Amino acid sequence: MQHVSPIREPLVTGGKTYHDITEDVCRQVEAKPNVRWAAAFAVSLVGLAIFFYSVYRTLWYGIGEWGLNKTVGWAWDITNFVWWVGIGHAGTLISAILLLFRQKWRTSINRAAEAMTIFAVICAAMFPVLHMGRPWLAYWVLPLPNTFGSLWVNFNSPLLWDVFAISTYFSVSLVFWYIGLIPDFATIRDRATGPIAKRAYALLSMGWTGSAKAWSRYETVSLILAGLATPLVLSVHTIVSFDFATSVIPGWHTTIFPPYFVAGAIFSGFAMVLTLMIITRKVFKLEDYITLEHVESMNKVIILTGSIVGIAYTTEFFIAWYSGVEYEQYAFINRAFGPYWWAYWSMMTCNVITPQLFWIRKIRRSLTATFIISIFVNIGMWFERFVIIVTSLHRDYLPSSWAMFSPTIIDIGVYVGTIGLFFTLFLLFAKFFPVVNMAEVKHILKSSSEVKHHHSSHAKSMHGTSSESNTNTHHSNE
Amino acid sequence: MNKKFVLGIYDDEDVLLEAIENVRAAGTKIYDVFTPFPVHGMDDVLGIKRSRLPIVAFFCGLFGTSFALWMQIWMLGFDWPMIIGGKPHIAIPSFIPVTFELTVLCAAFGMVITFFIVQRLKPSLKVNVFDKRSTDDKFVMAIEVNEGVTDVNALNNLLRSNGAIEVNEKEVIK
Hints:
The structure holds 2 protein chains of 2 kinds.
Chain A: H1 18-30, H2 35-61, H3 76-100, H4 110-131, H5 158-191, H6 195-204, H7 212-245, H8 257-283, H9 292-323, H10 326-337, H11 341-353, H12 361-364, H13 367-394, H14 409-432, H15 438-448, H16 457-462
Helix pairs in contact in A: 1-15, 2-14, 3-4, 3-7, 3-8, 3-13, 4-5, 4-14, 5-6, 5-7, 7-8, 8-9, 8-13, 9-10, 10-11, 10-13, 11-13
Chain B: E1 2-10, H1 13-25, E2 32-34, H2 42-46, H3 53-79, H4 92-118, E3 139-145, H5 152-161, E4 166-173
Antiparallel strand pairs in B: 1-3, 1-4, 2-3
């Protein structure tokens, strides 16, 4: 009843106090792993084992272990790369763009979403690096002196732009995430009882004390990093789309790609955040912090970006016809009605039709429905990349070289393996790091919690009779 | 040399803000205030100046832009010119993505490294926290005691009358 606007729902329910937030978030970090976590971790480790085996096969026997052929030289590897990078985008969107827009609902989900970004980019990076065939020479993509043995790198190539975009994106996201973690590590450090935990969190917290000047600088740094990360996240998927758009392959050579890819990235990323958060809030009992209001807000973003993606698919078709280029027209007819029709229609169903169900409020606020639809979106967005990449390549200008692509068990293994890698990292994060940003949730507690938290008698006497006088006074400064 | 501090413990940020104003108005110098989260309005009542870190970010970004442009123009335009896709040697539009990325990279890292240095944040096992509850749910106002000058009792009363739930003394060994 004490939140800012009467039409907004509270963001923290259950009448929490500052101390409750600390307790609720630290409980997971301090307690012994629970059974559900351990079971999930065991499954993830199996996935990780599959990853290592598939990588071993790929490196030992070479890229021939994958199903690529002369016509389809890019398939699952780039599909998975774009899929993972896209998933990562939601984390930055939540932590940076929503910070600039002063959306308070970001505070309880930004930590986990940013962690997702970092782990997703790690998974994404595996694919181009493995596709090099000799990953130990991966540093050749950096601009090294040509006396080193080759010419300078080609700065006209979008593949090189990718190197700079992905590595910048990864390192800036990591720093942004870590800066946010420092005060929370300090909280855990000051509560820690075990000698290892005490030392580990002391090192991680960098000697943070929470002094006034430190917070002032911290807020400045967060704001500027958000301002930098916002164009950065848009640039990353733009550059990823340039990998295709700057080529002369029908179906790839289109100017719509950058905005279409960015919307798709946010779309798939929010779906993944929902998949993860619905499980996390349940397993770690964080229902008071990640509420239905949060789920609904994210579902609204899914309707918006899902619709943009739908319009992009339609526009592509229209432009193919309108361009009068027969190769372009054939590429699109072939996508929808050629041998890969099933992939195209899976994409259309999962990405364009299912998210429209969120127009119905009941579905938007149903956890089960949201979870199922978020899985559909994840699948649909994988098919989108598969459709763009494989259907455009498999029938090129020369019918004698037309071919089909079928993945090998190793292709599948690397992909499933990165999912294992992702969940291994995410579960470790969820166990040892605070999954909810405590400092930021405490910061919004007074303005956005359900029940006004307890005030000491001193506080009451200070402010006289009305308890409302305390509410929102500092927020008027914002 | 050991330093002595009087710590006023608060449990509400609005009470704290008012207390800071009153304590400063009474002519007492506040050493520092420790809070579990950023309290808006704190900078004004404590008289903390706006951070100049954005300026650092700007100049680091500017360095990134110039470095990236110089690097690409020199490498492909002068050191080893090649014709790629019929483009001129110095194809500025092609150089923009890398220039943008390096601008962001330098601005972000330059600012964050500066932040770590000026705030003296570094991995260390020794942490000097006045009151451990200040990273949980309490707000701590620390006032330095000058031996023989500061009236600790008066200070105690001043803090309590301004809403402190506890007043403690703490000695810090330097």
